[in-house]
Amino acid sequence: MKLSSLLEKLEYTCVQGSTEQEVTGVVYDSRKVTDGSLFICIRGAVVDGHKFIPDVTAKGAKVLVVEEEVSAPSDVTVIQVTDTRYAMAFISAAWFGHPAEKLKTIGITGTKGKTTTTYMVKSILENAGYKVGLIGTIEAIIGNKIIPASNTTPESYVVQEYFHEMVEAGCDCVVMEVSSQGLMLHRTQGFVFDFGIFTNIEPDHIGPNEHKDFDHYLSCKAMLLKQCRVGIVNRDDEHFDRIVEGHTCTLETYGFSKEADLRAEDARLIGGKGYLGISYQLKGLMDFPVEIDIPGKFSIYNSLTAIAICRHFKVSQENILKALKVAKVKGRIEMVKVSDEFTLMIDYAHNAMALESLLTTLREYHPHRLVCLFGCGGNRSRLRRYEMGEVSGRLADLTIITSDNPRDEEPQAIIDDIKVGMAKTEGKYVEIPDRKEAIAYAIHHGEPGDIVVLAGKGHEDYQEIKGKKYPMDERVLIADILAGK
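The structure assignment produced for this chain is given below.
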């Protein structure tokens, strides 16, 4: 492909060489350069791609995309841009033939609810006969192919590659999680989303390697409403006015607010043997009763979001209700049947905010006891341990403190930190470092009417110890425990 075709939607300066240069591949990892490649110099958190110019030109790179003045062999074309990450998104889209133009694209951002909502949308649209690709925190799904995820939102090149594969696999649409980091680093540039969804925002991901403060976090997330045709926003969020400020899309809203275009009324908690759920009356742009086998008010928000999107795909009421009944997300309030007497669930809640939200929700069901089993990751903030210990001590009737991913730390040292937070409360606890033994304890000591939560691991199927990942899926552990293994 000619270089000029890859650059057609970008502002750039050709510092050296010719834009008529033929390009045989687009690369941003110096190890993957082959003869005739275009190499994009990305400034990463750890490594600066500009430093690899001698190496990549020796390997045969014929085009460099740079942000600064560089020295390169005379037969190499040098293209200078303001931001190489931004440029990579447009170059990648062109390289793969602008695949987003052949799909209906749905991007979902927000502090909470992204993952569950993407699977709900996928479930509803597939029930209606669409073929749906997915990109998210857990995995990317392209037809029958499942690719485990390393980032919530992959690099722009990978996003475009996945879109291309989805088109090849016959997908009609794609639903993807869009992280604040993904927006900040321009991973979703190079195309315009047909639908952009903003679920909610709370302080999170604020720190030296993420966002400097809440204002920056909010402004990055709000970028989605400048990169989509239709924006669908939670009307109840206290930051609503700031979220929609400067939006360039057609705006729709959902929530409990009377001002919401699609709203929930008469919400009721429902429950049975081994499951919890919620029901409500949908009003506004659509009008029918909804029932979901996932507990909590946030399940209403997640389902409202999914319905708001699927309304644009002309999905029938019957298909929406059928799909919401079967929509399940691995590790997100995932109920696992172990007894008719009590309810057990697996959830990814791995910080204080998520754990507090989950336990507060489950408290509304007035369990006989609320039992919370969790650990904390090693090589991570000790503050998180104190906070999670305090939250569980305050909200759970019994806390079972165990291991998560200890990484390079001693499991007992992490447990001792959690107990510092527990000590600020009057909560009862037991400590069982071995996670399988801890889960066995929770199951064997379950009492009628209990709700038992296994928190922190969620969809993960491994435990990381001393730099190595060992297989450990809580569903398998539960099956083994029930089988007496």
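Interim note for the steering committee: The chain has a mean pLDDT of 94. The radius of gyration is 24 Å.
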